[in-house]
Specification:
eight-stranded antiparallel β-sheet, 8 strands, Hypothetical Protein Tm1070, Chain: A
């Protein structure tokens, strides 16, 4: 199958809620859902931008050919880890076209909230 999508995606709104209710699988989180429809692995770099400090990353993830990856921002490790309870934005750059969707689960209250939208395609 052909590579559907684009190489550069922007998620201008990011926020990981600082608390959660319910079981572990309902942990508040923010996710970049990355779809790779092509026959080659996608090597994606994620850079995270903040209002009050230099960017973090790039974090590197691989999405195998003809697969999807739901990369939680909560799990990005290394110097400049994405903080909980703080505003941020992100830019994802892939070496092959992919499609990116942004999702947040906010379980700070027993009545959970789920937000989901297609990221902005920048190329």
């Amino acid at each position: 199958m052909q590579h559907l999508g684009k190489r550069t995606w922007v998620i201008p709104e990011g926020f990981i809620p600082g608390s959660s209710t319910g079981p572990e699988e309902m942990l508040s989180h923010e996710t970049a859902c990355i779809l790779n429809t092509g026959d080659a692995d996608a090597h994606v770099q994620i850079t995270v931008f903040f209002p009050d400090r230099e960017p973090a990353g790039p974090y590197e993830v691989t999405v195998p050919a003809r697969r999807t990856l739901h990369q939680r921002f909560n799990e990005l490790a290394g110097d400049g880890e994405v903080p909980v309870g703080a505003d941020y934005a992100s830019v994802l750059v892939s070496d092959v076209p992919v499609v990116v969707q942004h999702t947040r689960l906010d379980s700070r209250q027993p009545a959970n909230a789920l937000l989901s939208t297609i990221a902005y395609c920048a190329d």
